[in-house]
Amino acid sequence: MQTHEIRKRFLDHFVKAGHAEVPSASVILDDPNLLFVNAGMVQFVPFFLGARTPPWDRAVSVQKCIRTPDIDEVGITTRHNTFFQMAGNFSFGDYFKRGAIEFAWTLLTNPQDQGGYGFDPEKLWATVYLDDDEAIALWQEVAGLPLERIQRRGKADNYWSMGIPGPCGPSSEIYVDRGPEYGVDGGPEANEDRYIEIWNLVFMQNERGEGTSKEDFEILGPLPRQNIDTGMGVERVACLLQGVDNVYETDLVRPVIDLVASIAPRGYGAGNHDDDVRYRVIADHVRTAAIIIGDGISPGNDGRGYVLRRLLRRVIRSAKLLGIDTPIVGDLMACVRDAMGPSYPELVTDFDRIQRIAVAEETAFNRTLTSGSKLFSDAAGATRTAGSSVLSGTDAFTLHDTYGFPIELTLEMAAESGLSVDEEGFRGLMAEQRQRAKADAAARKHAHADLSAYRELVDAGPTEFTGFDELTSEARILGIFVDGRRVPVVAHGAEAQAADRIELVLDRTPLYAESGGQIADTGTISGTGASGAARAAVADVQKIAKTIWVHRVTVESGEFVEGDTVTAAVDAKWRHGATQGHSGTHMVHAALRQVLGPNAVQAGSLNRPGYLRFDFNWQGALSDDQKTRIEEVTNEAVEADFAVNTFNTELETAKAMGAMALFGENYPDEVRVVEIGGPFSIELCGGTHVHNSAQIGPVTILGESSVGSGVRRVEAYVGLDSFKYLAKERALMAGLASSLKVSSDEVPARVANLVERLRAAEKELDRARLASARAAAGNAAAGAESVGRVRLVAQRMAGGISAADLRSLVGDVRGKLGSDPAVVALIAEGENDTVPYVVAVNPAAQDLGVSANDLVKVLGSAVNGRGGGKADLAQGSGSGASGIDAALAAVRAELGRS
Ligand code: SER
């Protein structure tokens, strides 16, 4: 049975049973604790927690999931994918254990000609949480499963949570016995390769708190209702129903293996285990990479971008290890698109962008590999020169750490050059690095705020935002926090006054909390208070759990008591600037897409009064012409004085209108749309905006730059700041024109002319300096002294001479000294207190055992220098001209001894 059919049967089965079909969410949701969506239930978390009311009691989805903790298992086991499709049915307070078991069992065991998967019931096993007798009884009753095929397992296996605070509950997993050829019997408890888990039924009934592992976490209490969350591994079911050995050989993954096999010198399944693993790694990772890029991530050095980079690099390295030397990623992406497109149309519609980003990473990484190969040859050369045949662990580690060489690649290259590698040393360094990374991660964890203090307020419901309609609102204080601790009252001067330590939570507020790229409003909170007038300045407003808005304040006078009525007011001038900044961002976004096309996809933004920046996916710098056009289109749209309309509507309606949504953002069903000038700009946005576009004022683009691979940033000033910036530029220009004594228009030509003249003068000066140095060198040669058995010229040169000139001079002088043993040592006062020096030794002196490399070290020790070279010529650089005489004396003394 093909994978697409497996998905379809799952959806059909549950839709027939009254479940709403919900599309997969993006793999990137707006939750900093979750790198990627790793289960079907993630998009439903607020429903389980009772924070939002689900529009349906039952739902079914096939969710795109990314799990990378087992990345090293990929290709080695038969069942680990970094990307997989999780088919799941969900009950929000509707059916519970019995329903979940019944639905799963019928779909699995119904014959294929009746819409089921046709698994042999005799091959199915179930596990349950230790004390879940109810589930055991249901498995027996509903499915007729005998007791000997039901196993009890502990918390690590059968108590499911997201690994972070959130909904959780005991689970029951369904396994298929693949038969004795896959290992010993004894059920899942004994062997998870033979008994392969295909479906996890979670009886979601509790809420978990912080914890350190799968087993160690606190249960905060029951959820408002009992729910069901299940997840069936589509790839694993495909593997079993297609009778293939592993998930990489299923119909949607295998085409990549076949494509690679048609290019690689060594085939798949040809008896080389390592090669087969490489094939599977490529097939698995390239699919995951396509999905991640599709959902808006570009390769980078941290977070999600880093995971993507790591996946792509593993693909490229695996291909290299298979003997493929040509670029391959572009073709692999096309292969993924063809296989996965029918289920994920975005891979088809967005293919050009996805492929471009992946190929750019391949090109960049290949360059790194080339530099790494050079480092490898140098290290191999040095190893041999040192008379060793073992490449050091440090070299292997540098190749791995800096150039991304897997140890296998280094081993292979070393073997080709007749060397072995100190693998133990390498592993030691890797272990140290892991240790460091672990320590870092632990340190970061402790810095996380403990959100449990706010839990009660979160449960009480969201803060009402009044700021779209008014700048001042009456409100009630629901909670006061100092350093994250709830307190009943806070007074001026009594507590720490730093603004980031005191927080007020109100039932409603006109102050905008930072989100969607718009930074928080500033303003005041004031009240009559229990003991006189109180006033606090609001420095920041942040959302907690996305629902309650926390005002970070400095109490300037009086005291605030929980329950008090207060007046919250936005600083009107600030808000005016903020609306200009945010509306300006929408205008620049629209203009960018008009000029660059739909591939310029938003990757992030930030705006505050007077300033905005906008990041977007794009390869390569923008031309001056493009920048000018973007600025022009933006300002024309400002000038057109478009009306700004904001309204709420259903997500689907908004999308149909062409409203631009952010990749990875988890939008509710009802969304707010901001429309500026009809089709010119339509975005989903919760921010505050001007009423018509002319209020934005002039927008001046400051520049455009790169902020990571494939992501560009445009920065601009808006409104009065834009004017101030232009006025400053104008004053600058006027100043320049006046000091150059020309009109503004003539400044560029005048500057070009001056630069040219300056260069010519510098060249002339260099020539003169060298000529005088040469003359000095000539004299020096004439006055060479006899030291020991050689003729020596040891001299301090005039200041300002470069190391290159010094090298050419030293050659001149050595040439003039004839064929008797001769040594030349020149040292100069360079720029910035550097002291460059060069030593040359002619062949006759080398025959006497004198080496430039040794002498340069003698020179260097007097001027804190470092350097080296060969027996005939060596150079270095130190600092501190006061050591020059001592350095020359040291050379004399050294030669005197020889
Ligand atoms: N959330 C559970 C899992 O991921 C079931 O869907 O296994």
TrEMBL record:
Top EC class for this record: ligase
Gene Ontology BP term (one): alanyl-tRNA aminoacylation
Keywords linked to the UniProt accession: Aminoacyl-tRNA synthetase, ATP-binding, Cytoplasm, Ligase, Metal-binding, Nucleotide-binding, Protein biosynthesis, RNA-binding, tRNA-binding, Zinc
Species annotation: Mycolicibacterium sediminis
Organism placement in taxonomy: Bacteria, Bacillati, Actinomycetota, Actinomycetes, Mycobacteriales
EC number: 6.1.1.7
Domain called Alanyl-transfer RNA synthetases family profile: residue spans: 1-728
CC terms in the record's Gene Ontology section: cytosol
The protein, known as: Alanine--tRNA ligase
